[in-house]
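Task: complex structure prediction.
Instruction: return structure tokens for all chains below.
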Amino acid sequence: MSLKRTPLFETHQRLGARLVEFGGWEMPVQYTSIVDEHLAVRQSAGLFDISHMGEVIVHGPGAAGFLNETLTNDVRKLAPGAGQYTLMCNERGGVIDDLYIYCVGSGHYLLIVNASRIEADYAWLRARFDAVPRPDTRLQNASESFGAVAVQGPQVARFMDACVSGGASEGTKVGRPTDLVKNQMGVFRLAGGSAVVTVARTGYTGEDGFEVVAPSGDIVWVWDRIMAAGAEFGLKPAGLGARDTLRTEMGYPLYGHELDEETTPIEAGLGFFVALDKGDFNGRSVLAAQKASGVARKCVAFKMTERSAPPRPQYPIWSSGPSGTRVGSVASGTQSPSLGVGIGMGYVPPGLALAGTTLEVEIRGRRSAAVVVPKPIFRRTSAKP
Amino acid sequence: MSKVPENIKYAKSHEWVKVDGDIATVGITDHAQHELTDVVFVELPAVGRSLKAGEACAVVESVKTASDIYAPVSGDVTAVNTALNDNPGLVNQDPYGAGWFYKAKISNLGEVNELLGAVAYSALIGGS
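Output:
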């Protein structure tokens, strides 16, 4: 089966991107180098193609109720134009996906889901939606109709407004994108044309930034417009390699690494996004029990404390000392471009999860020292000189 | 276009060897560093270790992958490039110079003749 391509595929080729397979898609892992692109996002700005991600729309009077029974966070908190990070769990409390949900208007919700989980998410939602009559309410997998890009970095606020013309017509009705606060979205007209774009002040890098969703046929215009506006501020194209190192520095989970169908949000350290008091939802009883009695494993962020090769997913984690034993595994790991040391996240017993706990990561048969750190692993005051 | 200097020999696994009397200096080629990009860590053999041609003797890690480096010729390791500990990026910046990996005393000079010359190596990498 051949790989899927986003509408920006030719753009990536023209830019000389190195293309790799990701979740069934042929995507740019890097254009120049992962480290350069990562540092560009931290220092100025980077532009990512995230068109492979999925969009699901729920619209109607039954939308909020359906979503609140299916997702862990409380959609009642969302006024029109507001978004939130949330998770979708199975009956065992295991994560089917982590995602963002936006309230576009009353009864109108947009879900942005992981590319590798579009089919699984939609099948789950569809089965639950169809199980009960929901008059005048629709569930739609709109993933094929939309593309998206993410523009991230400290300079983004200096050029984002030039990418649209006029104020937001839907969502948070601000005069310009930079008036959106974090997690707010608005619908704008792309500058220089008629394309309608959904702009959300959110991202996966820890920097200020926006994610822009547009009809597939318009996404190349969106990329070109943002590139043109951002060039003088140092905007560079950035690939999935940098996207991964950036989110790892933040301690953000990636589905398939920190999250899977056998892992709960409580084990993953995401209890903040589980609203037990909103009423019943898929997986609630398991998550409530875990919040009350604890879990057998916890996700921690760690930093290598001695010179070593980078930690990588599935490498064993050991407790430290002469009587050390194998206690868990690395879920995500890399050399941090901002810090110059190995960093990662992994699962360990709760007794070893406190920040400051020393651990060892087994890298190609040799155990090297590491320490549990709070998230985010990178913050501005901790950069190497 | 990858750089392929004339005066050195090449292994099919993309290591280069510069021969000076009976001392071999070994590194990875411009083509190899370009494929890896961003070298973040190099694990070098211990000084004194006895290597056989074709044996995995070092590891070079980029952000995304770890790659084994194979000894192009047999011999005992006499020196390693400790500059790579603090500055692994030298492998990308100057693969034939400051980015060298190790030196070894060649035990069988005949093995050098079995390596590829610049023209043959260029053909191998397809002039890319």
